[in-house]
Amino acid sequence: MRVFFTGGAGKAGRHAIPHLVEQGHRVTNIDLVKLNHPNVPDLRVDLTDGHQVFNAMASPASGAELDEPPAPYDAVVHFAAIPSMFLTADSETYRVNVLSTFNILDAATKLGIRKIIIASSETTYGVCFAQGEIRPDYIPVDEEHPTVPQDSYAMSKVCNEATARSFQARTGFDIYALRINNVIEPHEYLGHAKAWRETPEVRRRNIFAYIDARDLGHMVDRCLRTDGLGYQVFNVSNDDSSVGMPSAEVIDRFYKGVPLKRPLGEHETFYSNAKAKRLLNYAPSHGWRDLP
């Protein structure tokens, strides 16, 4: 597929795009920063400007494409965003994330691009950036869990999901929102492993879960290859938790009294990825426990 990928130079995108290229997709990176991948054109686009978004999505991405018949994009993957709290003013985080997502969805649907994937977030469940401690309503957390966050970043993601659902209702296209857990790059494991084993409380706000950046690329590919699901929201995580202690001990220490929807395996994630496995054949294969 020919893929219009926003935010490809970011922490998630710089792993996802090479994986998509390896799987045979033709990808254009849309970002304010270059990815500098030899087989991926870079286009600098301000996504809060709807004119720029529409123009870039409707135009050739490089000179090499001028020697071929014009080819529209088959899919849009929208990962670009202000990626966290505490990076700029709350109002700016909300403005950029909401407006850019509207512009992407608006342009893609008007251009007839029938597969759109947007990055949502674990923060929508209201745990990560809450003032004080908020525990999930139940565990493991699945896509049916309420999304009532307190912070502008997560609010922007909840708003984006509602916007995506509205565009899907109008068009009938496939629009999938990925509630991505804490993205960890392979080189980061060595720095994290000691804390994850010895101080599990540092993972509380991430619901004791994570997603390996390489498996996130696999998740995007599975979304591109799976048609006909309409509007869907998917949790994205690895199969195991991000702490050394067994799940039963995590529950006893951090989640005592929180309803348990089903029994958990010894080190099973508290951030359920069962829906992605069932509908997309998602199969994560990396993890921090691979370390010696």
From TrEMBL:
Highest taxon of source: Bacteria
Record-annotated NAD-dependent epimerase/dehydratase domain positions: 5-188
One Pfam family recorded for the sequence: Epimerase
CDD domains xref list: SDR_e
Protein name in the entry: NAD(P)-dependent oxidoreductase
Organism: Rubellimicrobium roseum
